[in-house]
């Protein structure tokens, strides 16, 4: 998922050490009782650190940045209250507001909308099969060995099915992909501006344009789905990531 990749990039750039456990979405491991006890929303990533279990992407990013600090730990956000912080936060919010679910579902359902995409071919067949068997799969919940998980799971699946059907609209997908292209153009223009300022000896925003920040770490995630829209992502170290549960080493 986009979120898993962004969290992995943040952890890598901060130089943190953690144990990882891959959660296979095609094999439906996110529906297993052990994972649903961690996150009833069945979404990845989930991090476990000491007594904390965090499954919301924004909260994970903020927690990692707030918790892991020090002389030898890279800060991905400028000091709070600074112009740099406000500007970087603006671009993080701009990227986080993009409809990632729609990109994911839509481009898996309609790979013809992407160019040289890294989406595996089996993903399209799997999500189509899931849609076709949705009613049967939901009926099986009555026989689950974990009845306390059935109600939230059923609610989640109904919402997911409705969302995927909405994202199966090619006209809608073309519209949001056009909007994505404009956002990426805006980000690329900002990165180019920072690059020129840095080359001229002016470095008003510290890491923004020099080293990865929270918003720039979102960009490589797009390259899996939209390599033709990510020309500027070469400025950020590319590390692949998948659905994952992370446990930090204290």
Automatic annotation (TrEMBL):
<dbReference type="InterPro" id="IPR036249">
    <property type="entry name" value="Thioredoxin-like_sf"/>
</dbReference>
<dbReference type="InterPro" id="IPR004045">
    <property type="entry name" value="Glutathione_S-Trfase_N"/>
</dbReference>
<feature type="domain" description="GST N-terminal">
    <location>
        <begin position="1"/>
        <end position="72"/>
    </location>
</feature>
<protein>
    <submittedName>
        <fullName>GDAP1L1 isoform 7</fullName>
    </submittedName>
</protein>
<comment type="similarity">
    <text>Belongs to the GST superfamily.</text>
</comment>
<dbReference type="Pfam" id="PF13409">
    <property type="entry name" value="GST_N_2"/>
</dbReference>
